[in-house]
Amino acid sequence: MTTTIALSARARSIKPSATLAVSTRVKQLKAKGRDVIGFGAGEPDFDTPDAIKQSAIAALQAGQTKYQPVIGAPAARAAIATKLSSENGIACTADDICISTGAKQSLYLALQCLLDVGANQDVIVPTPAWVSYRPMVELAGGTVVEVAGEVDNDFKITPEQLEAAITDRTAVFMINSPSNPCGTMYSPDELGALGDVLARHEHVVILSDEIYEKLIYGDDAHVSLGARPELAGRTITINGMSKAYAMTGWRIGYACAPQGLAKQMAKLQSQMTSNITSFCYPSIITALTESSGDVESMRQTFALRGALIHELVSTWPDVRCPKPTGAFYVFPDISAYFGRTSGGGRAITDAVSFAEALLEEADVAVVPGDDFGACAATHVRLSFAIADDQIREGCDRIHRWLAACS
Ligand code: PLP
């Protein structure tokens, strides 16, 4: 007889990603022949621009197939530092850059370097926030302190809320603008006001996840907190290739981490994954230096889709939804339907039962808000990284399904 393997508390405590679960379910239903429209995927539906692919192909054919420095190939790190200095105004050099297997790993490593188990450290997370922040913080031993943004303020928190949340226990402030799942972003003034608060609390490290910086649709420019001189020495900027360059499957992210932190992150990485796939490094340089035209054309397509989906969602009865100004998500408040019964006779009690009934009865997949934070449980997330006709058809199905709820 085989002894049962005892799972660690760590493994037992972690839930699988809600967003990936929806994508997997959609693939399963489609494989069974169901005509499902999936608003679940958090990835661009475009292919990676050809020049970026060609750089990897050339490197592969040239034999760039061996281990590289764990922290990243020097030329790629230099290209990232140049991008961050010139585009984002962050004073940094290649020494401050650590390249990892996706921004997800960069965030994970940063938190592992900043937090200790049992040290009573809080991490302030404005919510709604990406589903992976909480598990990452908790795996590192920290406690998440959620600060809820109001739907009427495009889900953004105010400087007063931030000031009230900071205590002696606050180790890290995480910010993600433009935001997944909100689809909104802070204006330079709003971010500046949060920066003013952070400037007064020198013990707080800032972890700024800027993965959607290129996907912005309103009048506001993206700004980086790490560009402010008084914050630069304690701001870790996270970014990557996934969203801007349609490279989700390549798994390339990076951190700009001051005070030698990049090397500490690489030290952990050296015992976990080592360097990213070696022949991908030249593609980072191609993406950062030669692909602005591709990025702009994808951005324009997303901008049109964002306007389309917002127009359609706005016609749904009893649903509130801010206009998307960044990333590729809308995050409508569907709580008016809690307590109602779907046309197929299912009780809608929360966002999970709403999403389940919608999938079963209308063949439309959305992500329930629950895992994006306590204040997000009255919402569902729809990604508009799908074609216009799918957006129209999916929104139409939802409209009809909502109308049948009583
Ligand atoms: N940060 C946010 C806010 C995200 O939405 C995602 C992906 O969905 C990531 C980080 C991770 O991106 P990747 O690991 O693909 O670079």
Structure report:
The protein is an alpha/beta fold. It is 39% helix and 12% strand. It has 14 helices and 12 strands. The chain has helices at 9-13, 18-31, 50-61, 74-88, 103-114, 133-139, 159-165, 188-199, 229-232, 261-270, 281-290, 292-313, 351-362, 388-403; strands at residues 37-38, 97-100, 122-127, 143-148, 170-176, 205-209, 235-240, 253-256, 329-330, 364-365, 367-368, 380-383. A 7-stranded mixed beta sheet has the order 2-8-7-6-5-3-4, with helices on both faces. Helix 4 (74-88) packs parallel to helix 11 (281-290) and helix 7 (159-165) packs parallel to helix 8 (188-199). The longest helix is centred in the last third of the chain and has 22 residues, at 292-313. It is globular. The N and C termini lie far apart (54 Å).
Notable traits:
single chain; 406 residues; alpha/beta; 7-stranded mixed β-sheet; 14 helices; 12% strand; globular; binds pyridoxal-5'-phosphate
- Strands side by side in the biggest sheet: 2-8-7-6-5-3-4
- As a whole number of angstroms, the C-alpha radius of gyration is 21 Å
Mean pLDDT over the full residue set? 96
The beta-strand count equals: 12
Determine the strand fraction and express it as a percent band.
5-15%
Number of helices: 14
The string of secondary-structure elements, in order, is: HHEHHEHEHEHEHEHEEHHHEHEEEH
Overall shape: it is globular
Low confidence ranges? none
Quaternary status of these chains? single chain
Q: For the terminal residues, how far apart are their CA atoms? A: 54 Å
